[in-house]
Task: inverse folding
């Protein structure tokens, strides 16, 4: 599966470092479905897995770089998206 990314794939506020991290994470996840899913779960279609990979890479980038696109609430053990977070639909 080829990883096609364009400007809509990234947050407008990300730095070059964040974009590079996102791209690396996305491409790794995109090509690693068998390692990421439960062994007995069926494989997702390329289209659906691409969305999962995009959203997981977005979350990883947010948490790795420490920007304010998501906030972890320790009291409720919940990851909260701010108004800037835009997962791919």
Result:
């Amino acid at each position: 599966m080829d990883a096609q990314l364009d400007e809509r794939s990234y947050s407008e506020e990300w730095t070059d470092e964040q974009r590079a991290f996102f791209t690396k994470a996305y491409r790794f996840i995109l090509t690693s479905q068998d390692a990421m899913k439960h062994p007995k779960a069926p494989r997702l279609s390329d289209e659906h897995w691409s969305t999962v990979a995009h959203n997981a890479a977005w979350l990883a980038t947010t948490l790795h770089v420490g920007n304010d696109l998501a906030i972890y609430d320790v009291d409720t053990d919940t990851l909260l998206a701010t108004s800037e977070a835009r997962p791919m639909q």
User: Anything to note?
Assistant: The CA atoms of residues 67 and 89 lie 22 Å apart. The beta strands are 70-73, 78-81. The helical segments are 16-30, 33-36, 46-65. The first strand starts at residue 70 and ends at 73.
